[in-house]
């Protein structure tokens, strides 16, 4: 077990509980916290391979399961990155707010000082079933002071659960609204980085061009993204600094780009010919339909660790992000004024991630 590290904001030993530790954001948090010498507890259904954290297995949907798993644990800082996708937003609200509520109730005995909650820009855009629709959408770049949209949204429900528990249990909180998060994970439901790497491998295998799947607006307009390591850095910063206490923040890399420039750069990394937007979106769910055998053949020949394409690529999520008919850019001024200076160049975040996936034989 790594030695506990002093919390610079409060001068006491810190023990961190990462919830959703096997996901993109959670695994980045575990790695950064462990590298910094914190004691780390990693809560997820399954252990994270190669993790330095102590695994805690629990089903967040079961109050009894979570209570049993955490009854002897005493975290001081909690990082909540888990979610469960449901068929409707009403179901998303019921399930995901209960997961957070179950976790916080199970920690009623613990000396929790801060809970950091990861959400996203659907706070401003609305849930998947009404995404980017209606006249109430705020103008870009999105700022944290925007009022909630008049729609059901599980992010709002989670915030309410967090605030109620903070009032009862006396801990500080922060909310972290990330844009599309790219980082290291396999089997994640929303993983653009690995999805694009899988698309590139299939294009190379089949001799087809690397085709942009999204909308004209996304091809030509400005956008931004969030590197998972930057998100981890931001969540740890907010949880240990007075300026981050009881605040909601946007979290993006700090640069902006257009896909019409980024797409050729990614194609060049993979050594592929490319095609941009041409008349209408060309979704990956259509482009990649029936490619499971192609991927399994690639995996066999190159000795890849995951032959199941469904655990590698989340076509639907990348289609949703790149198919948006509106500009999506978030403002980072609130974090900058509060003292957070973290920055990532998005092109480097992509290529560094691809290098890592190749090194670990997840993509060829």
Automatic annotation (TrEMBL):
Residues 75-364 form the PRISE-like Rossmann-fold domain. InterPro entries: NAD(P)-bd_dom_sf (IPR036291), PRISE-like_Rossmann-fold (IPR055222). Its EC number is 1.1.1.-. Gene3D superfamilies: NAD(P)-binding Rossmann-like Domain. Keywords: Oxidoreductase. GO terms for molecular function: oxidoreductase activity. It comes from the Bacteria. The keyword Ligase does not apply. It holds the Pfam family PRISE. PANTHER family: 3-OXO-DELTA(4,5)-STEROID 5-BETA-REDUCTASE. This is SDR family oxidoreductase.
């Amino acid at each position: 077990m790594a030695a506990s590290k002093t919390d610079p904001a409060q001068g006491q030993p810190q023990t961190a509980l990462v919830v959703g530790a096997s996901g993109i954001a959670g695994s980045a948090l575990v790695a950064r916290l462990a590298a910094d010498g914190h004691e780390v507890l990693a809560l997820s259904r399954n252990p994270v391979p190669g993790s330095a954290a102590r695994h805690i297995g629990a089903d967040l949907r079961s109050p009894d399961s979570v209570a049993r798993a955490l009854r002897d644990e005493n975290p001081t800082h909690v990082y909540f990155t888990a979610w469960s996708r449901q068929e409707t937003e009403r179901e998303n609200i019921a399930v995901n707010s209960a997961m957070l509520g179950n976790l916080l109730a199970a920690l009623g005995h613990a000396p929790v000082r801060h809970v950091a909650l990861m959400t996203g820009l659907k706070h401003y855009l609305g849930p998947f079933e009404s995404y980017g629709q209606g006249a109430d959408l705020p103008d870009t770049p999105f700022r944290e002071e925007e009022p909630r949209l008049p729609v059901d949204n599980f992010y709002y429900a989670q915030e309410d659960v967090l605030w109620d528990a903070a009032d009862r249990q006396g801990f500080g909180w922060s909310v972290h609204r990330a844009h599309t998060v790219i980082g290291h994970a396999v089997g994640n439901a929303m993983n653009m980085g690995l999805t694009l790497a899988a698309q590139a491998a299939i294009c190379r295998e089949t001799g087809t061009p690397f085709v942009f799947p999204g909308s004209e607006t996304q091809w030509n307009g400005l956008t931004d993204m969030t590197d998972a390591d930057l998100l981890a850095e931001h969540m740890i910063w907010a949880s240990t600094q007075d300026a981050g206490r009881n605040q909601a923040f946007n979290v993006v890399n700090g640069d902006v780009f257009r896909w019409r420039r980024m797409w050729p750069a990614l194609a060049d990394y993979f050594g592929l010919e490319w095609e941009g937007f041409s008349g209408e979106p060309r979704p990956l769910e259509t482009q990649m339909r029936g490619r499971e055998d192609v991927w399994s053949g690639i995996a066999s020949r190159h000795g890849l660790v995951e032959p199941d394409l469904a655990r590698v690529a989340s076509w639907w999520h990348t289609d949703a992000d790149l198919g948006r008919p509106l500009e999506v850019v978030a403002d980072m001024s609130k974090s900058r004024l509060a003292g957070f200076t973290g920055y990532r160049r998005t092109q480097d975040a992509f290529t560094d991630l691809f290098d890592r996936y190749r090194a670990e034989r997840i993509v060829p």
